[in-house]
Amino acid sequence: MAYETIIVEIEDHVALIKLNRPDALNALNAQLMTELCTALKDAQANDKVRCIILTGSDKAFAAGADIKMMSEKTFVDVFSEDLFGPESDAIMRVRKPIIAAVSGYALGGGCELAMMCDFIIASDTAKFGQPEINLGVMAGLGGSQRLTRFIGKSKAMDMNLTGRFMDAEEAERSGLVSRVVPVKKLMEEARSAADKIAEKSMVTVMAVKESVNRSYETTLREGLLFERRVFHSLFATEDQAEGMAAFIEKREPQFRDK
Ligand code: HXC
């Protein structure tokens, strides 16, 4: 499919989705969000794809929702269309892992989009922020919710109330990102993480994603029970037998997603 605001490349088992509105620092408009959802749905449906990388440019992952698109809207407009609600729900429904490879600005909806991915690998030039307060609004796609759970109340309040940016080093220290690498190495690092994931059993990978995400939706007791039952259920797969046999036989496992 021909896209105008994103670039999609599928190489081996990895779908690379690159946000591509360079003149607007990859600001999220309706077309970009629709194209992104279509590309993610296609990646989910494509048996060849085992991991997805979402990235932007060196200068910006995404500088937020498109302010020019939003500036004339009224409450009734954004409420009625549920601005970016259906799109963020669709992103959260993707069951294959999504790595956000973030360089430059990840602000507002850009930071929130990165947080919708399963983990964030940042370049040393990355800057995260929820500066919506400077526009007379506030976060609308997780900046007051996911960010608070990821980095805690004090830092989330600081970011949302002052609108300040957080650099990559602070983001890693705070638990927002999993790794920081030099900007030139960002895509290599993301790719190598994706390749590692692609080697695993897809059934297990999706079970892990579901279980970790469940920890944000439920109590510890229920979450632990959910985890244990999913762990038990993986013994119904051929890949469990293969993984354990390969360990004992001191060889690499040959997973078949069964
Ligand atoms: C539309 C944007 C944009 C945005 C940048 N641009 N961010 N256009 N929406 N969010 C455009 C600029 O207008 C400009 O185009 C071009 O990109 C380059 O930006 P500059 O400002 O000239 O670059 P620079 O001086 O380097 O500053 C970079 C920046 C700044 C610090 C990232 O652009 C900035 O503060 N952007 C806004 C960040 C923000 O407030 N994000 C939150 C949005 S609200 P032109 O053609 O004008 O030169 C949001 C809500 C999410 O995300 C919830 C939705 C439900």
UniProtKB/TrEMBL annotation:
Question: Which NCBIfam families does this entry report, sorted A to Z?
Answer: PRK05862.1
Please name the SUPFAM superfamilies in this protein's record. Answer: ClpP/crotonase
Record keyword S-adenosyl-L-methionine present: no
> Origin organism of this chain?
Roseovarius litoreus
| Entry's family note | Belongs to the enoyl-CoA hydratase/isomerase family.
User: Tell me, what is an example of a GO biological process annotation in this record?
Assistant: fatty acid beta-oxidation
Q: Which UniProt keywords apply?
A: Fatty acid metabolism, Lipid metabolism, Lyase
PANTHER family this protein is in?
ENOYL-COA HYDRATASE, MITOCHONDRIAL (PTHR11941:SF54), ENOYL-COA HYDRATASE-RELATED (PTHR11941)
Which Pfam families does the record associate with it? ECH_1
User: What Gene Ontology molecular-function terms does this entry list?
Assistant: enoyl-CoA hydratase activity
Q: What class of enzyme is it?
A: lyase
Question: What function does this protein fulfil?
Answer: Could possibly oxidize fatty acids using specific components.
Swiss-Prot/TrEMBL catalytic activity: a 4-saturated-(3S)-3-hydroxyacyl-CoA = a (3E)-enoyl-CoA + H2O; a (3S)-3-hydroxyacyl-CoA = a (2E)-enoyl-CoA + H2O
Q: What is its EC number?
A: 4.2.1.17
Q: Which PROSITE patterns does the entry link to?
A: ENOYL_COA_HYDRATASE
Q: What is this protein called?
A: enoyl-CoA hydratase
